[in-house]
Design a protein that fits this description.
alpha+beta; four-stranded antiparallel β-sheet; about 400 residues; globular; 12 helices; 2 domains
Length: about 400
């Protein structure tokens, strides 16, 4: 009898330990948010009051306060953001909407702005925010693209046409956005040419390169650009035209794509790669020539004597480098290894990545892209083509 009791006691003790361990595991895996600080009705009044009083001096504090309430009141904040955008006095809300928007807010804001209040909202001052929302939430752009692809094309005022062209010209060359722009921009050529010429004359060198690229791709002789030609850095990588939908997978951030000269992957397409944590800053897009080393490194845009000449290169003429594995954290680096020294053109999103070349093993180099965005990136995509 005592043996039976001892066995039962042992069993109960083991079960208690297991339950206690399970509770510790649960506490380690889940963060306790706590009860909501206000009732839904009170929260709604507070959110509405904050949005009504937004101005440049308190905009960042408003964003921080509302961000802290999202865990409990996401739906309420969405509804009040949409309602505030539909009222007059929205000029101070651009940054708030862009910072707090989800797919629901983006869809409602763009649909209202494009189809209900186009004349009041679609202008150059609002175009950057609207373009950013379309890029982050591709489904929100569908009404915008559907209308622009309809025939006949919508008749737009000068301000509306400039806003449409600015969104398309600034959109990163990912998914089908550039192909869509190539078909839409000719319908609003005067506005598009004006913006391209303006970018070409500006001080922003990346905008200048992109302006030359647009003029070249569209085969336009833009006023003020007659004597300028795209540098080898800006030759377009051609891709087949697909249906005009921006719903392809892409990184969450936005802005322009740059083109630089780089070595390509090996002829068989194989690339060893991996993410490397790093906190140091990377050089800008204008990548410097590596300093002399005991083994001569490959200079960007040139072919060393020990490297294959482009004319003798028999591998693929174009393709894509793409990361694999886990998301790449903020300030981490992704490395493409074993790149030989063949001159090559490379397109990537300069607002998300910094790039540099460093000597690799033997006569190879490594292409290192650093995630300089505000959060992790699911993948890194680089389009390349060999330059003769």
């Amino acid at each position: 009898m005592n043996a039976v009791l001892r066995a039962w006691a042992t069993t109960i003790s083991i079960c208690s330990i297991v339950l206690l361990s399970a509770s510790f595991t649960a506490n380690a895996q889940f963060k306790v948010v706590g009860p909501p600080p206000f009732s839904p009705a009170v929260a709604r009044e507070k959110v509405r009051a904050l949005l009504a009083k937004v101005e440049p001096s308190n905009r960042q504090q408003t964003i921080a306060t509302l961000s802290g309430l999202l865990a409990w009141y996401r739906d309420i904040i969405d509804e009040e953001l949409i309602a505030a955008w539909r009222k007059n006095g929205r000029e101070n809300l651009n940054e708030v909407v862009e910072s707090l928007a989800d797919a629901r807010v983006a869809t409602q804001v763009i649909n209202f702005s494009w189809r209900e209040q186009r004349e009041a909202i679609f202008n150059l001052s609002d175009a950057p925010m609207l373009g950013h929302l379309m890029f982050r939430f591709p489904e929100s752009a569908q009404p915008f693209l559907d209308d622009l692809f309809s025939r006949p094309a919508p008749v737009l005022t000068e301000a509306e046409a400039q806003a449409v062209c600015r969104i398309l010209i600034d959109m990163p060359d990912l998914g089908t956005w550039r192909n869509s722009a190539m078909q839409i921009l000719p319908h609003y050529r005067q506005a598009a040419e004006s913006l391209i010429a303006q970018d070409a004359r500006g001080a922003d060198q990346e905008r200048r390169y992109q302006a030359l690229r647009w003029a070249s791709d569209l085969k336009w002789e833009v006023a003020g650009m007659e004597n300028e030609a795209p540098s080898p850095r800006t030759t377009t990588i051609r891709r087949p035209v697909r249906s005009p939908s921006p719903a392809d997978d892409r990184p969450p951030r936005r802005e322009r794509t740059a083109t630089v000269l780089m070595p390509p992957p090996e002829a068989d397409g194989g690339t060893e790669s991996g993410a490397v944590a790093s906190a140091h800053s990377s050089p800008p897009v204008h990548i410097p020539v590596p300093p002399p080393q005991p083994e001569p490194p490959t200079s960007i845009g040139s072919t060393p004597a020990s490297s294959p000449h482009p004319a003798s290169y028999e591998g693929p003429r174009s393709g894509t480098l793409e990361s694999n594995g886990n998301p790449i954290p903020q300030n981490a680096e992704y490395v493409f290894r074993n790149l030989p020294a063949v001159k090559m053109q490379l397109d990537y999103d300069t607002k998300i990545w910094d790039a540099r070349l460093v000597p690799g093993d033997g006569q190879t180099q490594r292409l290192i892209l650093k995630n300089k965005s505000s959060g992790p990136q699911k993948r890194c995509v680089v389009h390349w083509s060999v330059i003769p």
